[in-house]
Design a protein that fits this description.
This protein is mainly α. The protein is about 40% helix and about 5% strand. Strands 1-5 form a two-stranded antiparallel ribbon. Strands 2-3 form a two-stranded antiparallel sheet. A two-stranded antiparallel ribbon has the order 4-8. The radius of gyration is 25 Å and the shape is globular.
Length: about 625
């Protein structure tokens, strides 16, 4: 067992596919590891810190997809480099962890578990449920790789022991055998569901080795069924027949979909994970909440607003004594500040995501500077006018005061709790996301799907999202959700949810309304918000992102008056020299599609499934 741990730690350090294959060969040729290792432990290691395994993962999420989808804005103003400028030769390459994580950890280890560890175990027949669960997660991660990159080694990946050291690339729409790879992904998940539903006898329970569902097989079936619909929905325009066939088949499956918040698929990190918040806590001070995000929630008195966004500094009560002292100066020298700066005095004020707005007084920086005279001496005071995101959802206690985070940046220490009482979490697919997915499907079909019509799914999604964020906020010790001594104690309650849903805007349903709510809901899964935008073109852009009739809008993005573009794919990662010929062949085929673009770095181009014309 000790030798196995040493080898797996080596796997974590791998950064290229060829390096992963070399490590995989060592695993395959070390007979001491086979048959002696408990497959449950291997599963734990393979899924450790799923898609959130390094500090860089979070920081790249802040600087990339969370800004692209206008949850965040850099504290020095919107950054042109987040977006594609068609007039420039440089392109951003949006970060997602899938490619590196699949080849260095998740895919490598899960396939090894299924193909080597379990078959070599004396009780292999008792680990068939575990093998199916591992297969579901491996397929999910592989699908995400192709969803963003369009091509990768898959059929020939991890086959060094079979003499394949230079794997060829598969494509989303066509595997090496000529059949659609997306259909293979679906077929595999379907097969694994069948195994889990076959009630095999004497199966070992994953239990505490499973950081997702604690070994609950019924929940894994629900996740897999929901995943099949999610994967198929990407093909709504590219292969409508396949999409509709999968939808009908899954909705007839007795295992059902994710049907409540307790069934949401969420990876719960080990308790000690990221106790050292250095670097990650840049979310607390280097970013502000976006104007579009704040505007939509504020317009309809969304109960999620006080949990997801912090009050600004134009007034007392943002859980910070230093800010209260600034407010005393503000009242003394600007007694009319509430009427003089009414938009800031509403306490929730987002920063513009439009790079052309950085020259304005209200979106060039997170602080507003005001002059005053005291004792005959000219002075200035700086007031935080742009609201901060509540960073505690991603970082324990929002970080620690030190050389980066100042005492003014975060809530006072009295609101912190022991880090040992907080556990970071990473959502995969949640119930609320499922509701909005089904609402969209039902709305487009014009009929009930999964036993509910579009309006019912839509309203249930809103309710589930609000309840889920209250639970998550309590878990992460967000003061407004769980600390009754907080200046802004404002937990989400059933009454608040009912009041929100009773508004006229939420008594009817439209595609725009569904995606608006999905956008807010995916704050903790922004990569999926990006995919939803690519698939639907929603939320749409507007010069002034003011909501209308229950519909959210992203802010139009320009530089020098010229439109910028949100990237639509990642650049295909370049391997080392050993497999460069296969990489070049794959890239040549990708660039033959004019929608992909004629160069790897033209990330405004599209993956094969991305057909929505926006």
């Amino acid at each position: 067992m000790k030798k196995y741990k040493v080898i797996l730690m080596g796997v974590l350090a791998l950064s290229t596919l060829s390096g992963c294959l070399k490590e995989y060969q060592e695993l395959n040729t070390n007979p001491e590891l086979l048959g002696e290792t408990d497959p449950r432990f291997v599963f734990t290691g393979a899924t450790e810190n799923f898609n959130n395994s390094s500090r860089n993962h979070l920081m790249a999420k802040y600087s990339g997809v969370m800004q692209m989808m206008q949850y965040l804005v850099n504290y020095q103003g919107a950054q042109e480099g987040v977006y594609v400028n068609p007039q420039s030769t440089n392109r951003p390459n949006p970060f997602t962890p899938y490619y590196s994580d699949y080849y260095a950890q998740i895919g490598l280890r899960l396939r090894y578990l299924r193909e080597k560890v379990i078959p070599s175990n004396a009780e292999a027949e008792r680990f068939q449920n575990l093998s199916a669960i591992a297969g579901i997660l491996e397929t999910y991660e592989a699908w995400l790789v192709f969803d963003v990159n369009g091509a990768a080694p898959y059929t020939e990946a991890f086959k060094v022991s079979e003499g394949i050291g230079k794997p060829r690339y598969d494509f989303y729409q066509e595997g090496l055998d000529g059949s659609p790879l997306y259909k293979e992904f679906d077929a595999k998940v379907k097969e694994y569901i069948g195994i889990l539903q076959s009630n095999l006898p004497n199966q070992y329970d994953l239990g505490s080795s499973d950081f997702f569902y604690k070994g609950n097989v019924d929940n894994w079936i629900r996740f897999a069924n929901t995943l099949r619909i999610k994967m198929a929905q990407r093909l709504e325009l590219a292969d409508a027949t396949f999409y509709n066939d999968v939808l009908s088949e899954v909705l007839a499956n007795p295992g059902g979909l994710i049907s409540n918040n307790e069934q949401s698929c969420v990876y719960n990190h080990p308790n000690e994970y990221n106790n050292n918040t250095d670097d990650m806590h840049i979310l607390t001070y280097q970013y502000a909440a976006s104007r579009a995000f704040v505007n939509f929630m504020k317009e309809y008195d969304d109960p999620r607003l006080p949990l997801l966004v912090r009050r600004n500094g134009f007034g007392f009560g943002n859980n910070n004594e230093i800010n209260d002292g600034i407010t005393e100066l503000l009242e003394q020298h600007y007694p009319d500040y509430q009427t003089r700066f009414p938009e800031f005095s509403e306490r929730y004020f987002g920063m513009s995501s439009n790079p052309d707005s950085t020259s304005t007084l209200w979106s060039g920086t997170t602080y507003f500077t005001l002059p005053y005279t005291e004792g005959g001496v000219d002075k200035t005071l700086t007031v935080r006018h742009n609201s901060q995101i509540e960073s505690r959802f991603y970082v324990k206690n929002g970080g620690k005061v030190g050389t980066q985070v100042t005492a003014r940046d975060k809530e006072d220490a009295t609101y912190d709790v022991s880090q040992n009482s907080i556990s970071i979490f990473t959502p995969l697919i949640t119930y609320s996301e499922t509701c909005f997915m089904m609402a969209e499907i039902a709305f487009k079909s014009g009929s009930a799907k999964g036993g509910k019509d579009a309006l019912t799914w839509y309203q249930e999604g809103i309710r589930a999202s609000m309840q889920q964020y209250q639970t998550w906020a309590e878990k992460m010790a967000v003061p407004s959700a769980m600390n009754s001594n907080s200046d802004n104690y404002n937990p989400i309650t059933s009454v608040k949810i009912d009041n929100y849903l009773s508004q006229t805007e939420f008594q009817t349903v439209s595609l725009e309304k569904i995606i608006s709510q999905q956008w807010v809901n995916l704050f903790m899964r922004p990569e999926e918000a990006w995919a939803t935008w690519k698939r639907t073109g929603l939320p749409a852009f507007k010069d002034q992102p003011i909501p209308e009739a229950g519909v959210a809008f992203l802010e139009a993005i320009t530089t020098g008056g010229n439109s910028l573009v949100i990237p639509r794919r990642g650049a295909l990662p370049v391997p080392n020299d050993a497999n460069i010929d296969n990489f070049n062949s794959a890239l040549e085929r990708l660039t033959q599609d004019p929608n992909y673009g004629d160069m790897n770095n033209k990330t405004e181009g599209r993956i094969w499934w991305d057909r929505f014309l926006n």
